[in-house]
Design goal:
This protein has 74 residues and is mainly α. Helices cover 43% and strands 0% of the residues. It has a domain at 11-52. The two termini are 22 Å apart. 5% of the residues are buried.
C-alpha cells in the first residue's frame, strides 16, 4: 500500500463551520476531512473532464483502486 502524504491548508472559521455542517448532513463525507476530500476529488475530476489537466496513471504512484478505502479523519 502506498504511503499517503499529508496535505494541510488553513481555512477561515466560516469554512470550518460549513465543513462541520456538511459532515453533519452526512452525504458529502464522514467528518470534515471526508468532506474536504470529496470536494477536492470532485474538483479534480471536473478539471480532468475539462482538459485543464492531463490524466495520470494511479499505478505510477504505487497505488491500486482498492487502496482508496482509507478511513476519513476529522
Amino acid at each position: 500500500m502506498a504511503e499517503n502524504p499529508h496535505a494541510s491548508t488553513r481555512l477561515r472559521p466560516i469554512m470550518h463551520a460549513y465543513l462541520r455542517e456538511l459532515a453533519r448532513v452526512g452525504c458529502y463525507g464522514k467528518g470534515k476531512a471526508g468532506v474536504m476530500r470529496r470536494f477536492i476529488e470532485n474538483g479534480i475530476a471536473q478539471a480532468l473532464e475539462a482538459g485543464v489537466i492531463a490524466p495520470k496513471n494511479i499505478e505510477d504512484f504505487g497505488e491500486r483502486i482498492e487502496d482508496d478505502e482509507a478511513p476519513d479523519e476529522d
